[in-house]
Write a structure and sequence with these properties.
The structure holds two protein chains of two kinds. Chain A is an alpha+beta fold. Chain A is built from 19 helices and 26 strands. In chain A, the strands form six sheets. A seven-stranded mixed beta sheet of chain A has the order 3-5-1-12-9-10-11, sandwiched between helices. In chain A, α6 (205-216) packs across α7, α14 packs across α15 and α16 crosses α18 (715-727). In chain B, the strands form four sheets. Chain B has a five-stranded antiparallel beta sheet with strand order 4-5-10-6-7. The chains are: A alpha+beta, B alpha+beta. At the A-B interface, α19 of A face α12 of B.
């Protein structure tokens, strides 16, 4: 029986639910020091004086370090190399690291931090990205405050709009979104015989390796990064741990003692990356028959004080800026803009939840104004096999958006609305999305993965990959892939903690890429071992190799079978190769920076979300009653884990749509913990129906594509469209708080009658 | 910080009487511990009163007496309270999360003096009395006289809050407690409203309304209450009352909401509650 498509019990679940998993804060080393980061209280300023003497006088304080103590380069290497590890003369956002304090215990470093004497000179901050883009604005980055600009040019945009019967143009804005991983950032750096070992809660061990190497001026070979059990990441532990680890490593380097750095929730929220706030000007035009003719988009991300991953986040949003639709005339311009605010970065969806909110709100409005059912309207425009995306990419395989749309509609789209109960109005909304799996042309040099497999003489199996488990279920899914490939039982397979010493640089664990990349690398690693087992089994079964099958712990040939443990034991007696490396390189991708044309990703996952809401028109409160989420992921490896990904994404999406609001005042984030940063709780969770369409992707392991990020992307627009359907109010500024809904309900803007209640 | 853990009331009031410097009483800790962590409170003296025998709900004739250390969850589930003060049980069930309700105490919820405290508007419409004690004796204060501002109350520094008393409600009393939070649980009220009254031959009588989170302290909406008693209970009366009550509130804008929304919601919550009271009739 195949292990693929079975809800095997997650590998990490027992330790986690019994509280025995070892997170970074559970670890200690002899002689270990504690580290605290001294941060900027100003959004923009000059450091006039820095005097550590009274901090050094505090009992238990061992060391205070600044940028002057960095032996290598004072840069956190990500994309543009503009971010210092520790500020030198200028501070550019509230929370920017200035110095590190190391002490014997937590109390000492807290006290030491209070004693640090720094004098600043205030500089006027730029807090708004649109202001920062103005010609006469003060410059905090380059000559125009723009970190990155991408474009798509297709067809003739002017002519395209002229041919339209209806053109709709709106501005959409979105708030920050905080990752809210349960475990805050944390690292322990351990100097060991001239090398530096880094243990930490992180997504991308190779990024950390490169950053620490650059800061300490040591070769990559001397930096060893070991991932500890990671309590959630969602992109928030992609680039950021490079910073945290370099801070701890700098202390360990100078003191020659292990150094532990665990961020408090408040400093984590204040200073770590988030989903970028966006301003999107979106203009789309259609013929009266309901065909998209022209789309023009200006997509602006507030990147914060340093570029971090913004250029890539922006790029992904740009590529997908028209959504999964055909459109002959397209002009997209996107900008990541520098401001004196916290640097934003990777967050599940990576630049797509913002733009998808705009795309799908526009699609809904167009459908309503054309008096076409929103599902029917989408069916007229969606991408199918044989179509070209707006970047000119000819889709040849694994594109079943239509099936997701039809399935979602079949499960729950009602043309006849339930009669709303007085002031409580019911409505339904829909949103489609697609997602380019993997890094694509924007990260081509990293689109590779290694794996190592070792079958041991007792028949148990170890494997290592360069991607990480962060709660998403990778370890389980990869174990299933390997178990299926070798024919051993799932229980016999286990993953060793991800570390830079196990496999070659495999790129980051991001972009929903682990299943495809590490899965394929594992299958390749298993091949020589499988060959050994097949040869020996063939002799033991007295059957030609072509007839031998490996499955469920047995080698079989017709009616004959033999236990794999026995075969493996024999393999060892015969000194067969039973351990091997695998290497997988992603398929071809391309991108023309001037025109925005090319094959940006090798394959797309697609999905449709359908939301049913109830809006209390007296209070503006929205209750999401049900979300139907249908995703085309090629092949589901573990149905329960896949459903879990969807449920988590839906809840994160509901938070993004309705609750999660971060409105800083003067560059200062006011809600830095979970009593004021409002996440949905179990009581806010709707009924979630998850469903999968399986149209195998031939290059994926057993046909699988990626799923990780898909589930959050379309949730907010589906909810917002449902609010419109219920009330006629369209919210174009996320989150849709009751305050905004009530203000709209009581304003006298002409609104359109939702199609469902016509 | 000095910590004391007295086991009797006498011991407690004695310690309180002699301590110099600031003093904080630790009951459930759900407000105090957060403030200490945030650094907004730096206790010089902390008196842990959790061992005091103040965890009780007693019926005495037509009175209910609730010990200050009774947990919010106990109040939510208590049969006497469900029977004789259902509005208090309902409000207790809407507070925080199960973890918070298990720790938090009613005495703490009152003494903390937040205008958003969820048990306080119900206690207003129940005409509750607060019993305070010091070394010399006790005094009783009507709940509406207990608060002097946000986070401030009339307790002297040597006093301890002993218990809350009020008359049992009649079966014929109509009531509702409505709160708006930023989500459906684990939310501090943006606005709350407690209503108590009787319906007699299409007239409202004995109306009492208290509002939370829309003024420096919880307040009575007296004008609205008198207005509701003045005319036939119909939708015109509801509309007018929900307009008047907005004038009685003086809300602020903060991290949770805006003054404009809060003011409007005072009217909306009254309207919603009265519609439902009027046999679930809705406006459309």
């Amino acid at each position: 029986m195949s292990v693929i498509g079975k809800s095997e019990i997650r590998k990490d679940v027992r330790l986690k639910v019994t509280g025995k998993a070892v997170y970074i804060d559970d670890l200690s080393f002899p002689e270990m020091l504690w580290v605290k980061v001294v941060r900027s209280p100003l959004p923009h300023g000059l450091i006039k004086r820095f005097n550590p003497s009274s901090a050094l006088a505090v009992q238990g304080i061992v060391s205070v370090l600044t940028y002057k103590d960095i032996p290598g380069t004072n840069v956190v290497p990500i994309v543009l190399m503009d971010q210092p590890l520790l500020a030198e003369k200028v501070v550019r956002y509230i929370g920017e690291p200035i110095a590190l304090i190391a002490g014997e215990d937590r109390q000492a470093i807290e006290e030491g931090a209070r004693e640090i004497d720094i004098e600043f000179e205030k500089l006027p901050p730029i807090l708004d990205p649109l202001m920062a883009m103005k010609e006469d604005s003060p410059k905090i980055y380059g000559k125009d405050n723009i970190f990155s600009h991408h474009r798509i040019r297709r067809g003739n945009i002017r002519q395209g709009f002229e041919e339209c019967d209806l053109v709709v143009e709106n501005r959409y804005t979105t708030s920050y979104q905080e990752h809210a991983y349960i475990e805050t950032q944390g690292v322990i750096a351990v100097p060991y015989e001239g090398r530096m070992k880094i243990y930490g809660s992180l997504q991308c061990p190779f990024y950390v390796q490169h950053a620490v190497s650059s800061v300490l001026g040591l070769p990559y070979s001397q930096i060893e990064v070991i991932q500890t059990t990671t309590g959630g990441a969602f992109g928030g532990k992609e680039d950021v741990p490079s910073l945290v680890a370099s801070q701890a490593a700098l202390v360990a380097f100078h003191t020659k003692r292990p150094a532990k750095l665990i961020y408090t929730r408040e400093e984590d929220v204040e200073s770590m990356s988030k989903r970028h706030p966006a301003v999107i000007d979106y203009k789309s035009g259609v013929t009266k028959e309901g065909y998209l003719k022209a789309v023009q988009v200006k997509y602006v991300l507030n990147a914060g004080a340093y570029s971090t991953l913004s250029p890539i986040v922006l790029w992904r949003g740009t590529v997908h800026a028209v959504g999964p639709y055909k459109c002959p005339n397209v002009k997209v311009d996107s900008y990541a803009v520098a401001t004196n605010t916290v640097p934003c970065g990777a967050f599940r969806g990576f630049g797509m939840p913002q733009i998808t909110f705009a795309i799908e709100s526009q699609m809904d409005e167009l459908a309503n104004r054309l008096h076409i059912d929103p599902i029917e309207f989408r069916l007229r425009n969606i991408l199918r096999k044989g179509d070209r995306t707006v970047t000119g990419h000819l889709i040849k395989e694994s594109m079943e958006l239509e099936k997701t749309l039809k399935k979602a509609s079949q499960i729950g789209w009602k043309r006849e609305r339930e009669i709303s109960n007085g002031y409580k109005k019911r409505g339904m909304g829909i949103a489609c999305n697609y997602y380019g799996v993997g890094l694509g042309a924007g990260g081509r040099h990293l689109a590779k993965a290694g794996a190592w497999v070792s079958v041991l003489s007792d028949g148990s199996v170890n494997f290592a990959v360069g991607t990480t488990e962060m709660g998403q279920g990778m370890e389980t899914v990869l174990s299933q892939i390997l178990a299926n490939e070798l024919g051993v039982k799932y229980e016999r397979v286990s993953m060793v903690p991800t570390a830079t010493t196990q496999v070659p640089d495999s790129g980051p664990t991001v972009a929903s890429r682990a299943t495809v990349m590490s899965g394929n690398a594992l299958i390749k690693a298993a091949r020589p071992i499988k060959k050994s087992i097949m040869e020996v089994a063939s002799k033991m079964l007295k059957s030609p190799i072509s007839k031998v099958k490996l499955a469920d712990g047995y080698a079989t040939s017709g009616t004959k079978r033999i236990g794999l443990d026995e075969v493996i034991d024999k393999c060892f007696q015969q000194r067969k190769i039973m351990s091997s490396q695998g290497w997988y390189k992603a398929p071809y991708t391309s991108w023309n920076k001037a025109t925005g044309q090319g094959k940006p990703y090798f394959v797309y996952s697609t999905g449709t979300n359908l939301a049913e809401v109830e809006v209390n028109t007296l209070t503006g409160e929205v209750t999401v009653k049900r979300i139907i989420a249908v995703h085309d992921v090629g092949k589901v490896i573990n149905p329960q884990t896949a459903a879990g990904q969807v449920e988590g994404g839906v809840l994160q999406g509901i938070g993004y749509a309705l609750f999660e609001d971060m409105a800083p005042a003067g560059g200062k984030i006011l809600n830095t913990n979970f009593s004021t940063y409002i996440l949905p709780t179990a009581k806010d969770a709707p009924e979630i129906v998850s469903n999968f369409i399986e149209d195998p992707y031939p290059q994926g392991p057993f046909g699988a594509k990626g799923l990780g990020e898909q589930p959050i992307i379309g949730v907010a627009p589906a909810v917002i469209n449902a609010i419109f359907d219920a009330t006629g109010v369209r919210i174009r500024d996320l989150p849709a708080t009751p305050e905004k809904i009530i203000a709209e309900l009581n304003s006298h803007h002409p609104t359109f009658i939702p199609l469902g209640r016509r | 910080m000095k910590v004391y853990s007295p086991e009797t009331i006498e011991e407690t009031t004695k310690i309180l009487g002699k301590l110099k410097g600031n003093v904080h009483l630790l009951a459930g800790g759900t407000d105090l511990v957060v403030k200490v962590k945030e650094g907004t409170v730096l206790p010089e003296n902390l008196i842990n009163i959790r061992k005091l025998p103040l965890d009780y709900i007693k019926e005495e004739g037509n009175q209910l007496r609730i010990g200050a250390l009774t947990s919010i969850e106990t109040i939510h589930r208590s049969k006497p309270i469900r029977t004789y003060a259902p509005i208090l049980s309902d409000a207790a069930g809407k507070m925080g999360s199960p973890q918070i309700r298990n720790l938090a105490t009613i005495g703490g919820n009152i003494a903390n003096a937040s205008p958003a405290a969820d048990t306080v508007p119900p206690l207003f419409v129940l005409n509750a009395q607060i019993v305070l004690k010091d070394q010399k004796g006790s005094r009783v204060i009507p709940i509406e006289k207990f608060f002097s501002g946000p986070g401030e109350n009339v307790m002297r520094r040597d006093e301890i809050l002993m218990e809350i008393t009020f008359r049992k409600c009649a079966q014929s009393d109509e009531w509702f407690f409505s709160k708006l939070g930023q989500r459906k649980a684990l939310a501090i009220s943006k606005v709350s409203l407690a209503f108590r009254g009787k319906v007699n031959q299409n007239r409202l009588t004995d109306v009492s309304i208290a509002l939370g989170a829309v003024a420096p302290t919880v307040i009575y909406a007296q004008r609205t209450a008198r207005f509701l008693e003045s005319k036939t209970f119909d939708s015109a009366l509801i509309d007018e009352a929900s307009r008047i009550i907005q004038e009685e509130a003086s809300p602020i804008s903060d991290i949770r909401s805006t003054s404009e929304y809060r003011r409007r919601m005072v009217g909306a919550l009254l309207k919603q509650g009265l519609w439902e009271l009027k046999a679930g009739v809705s406006p459309d």
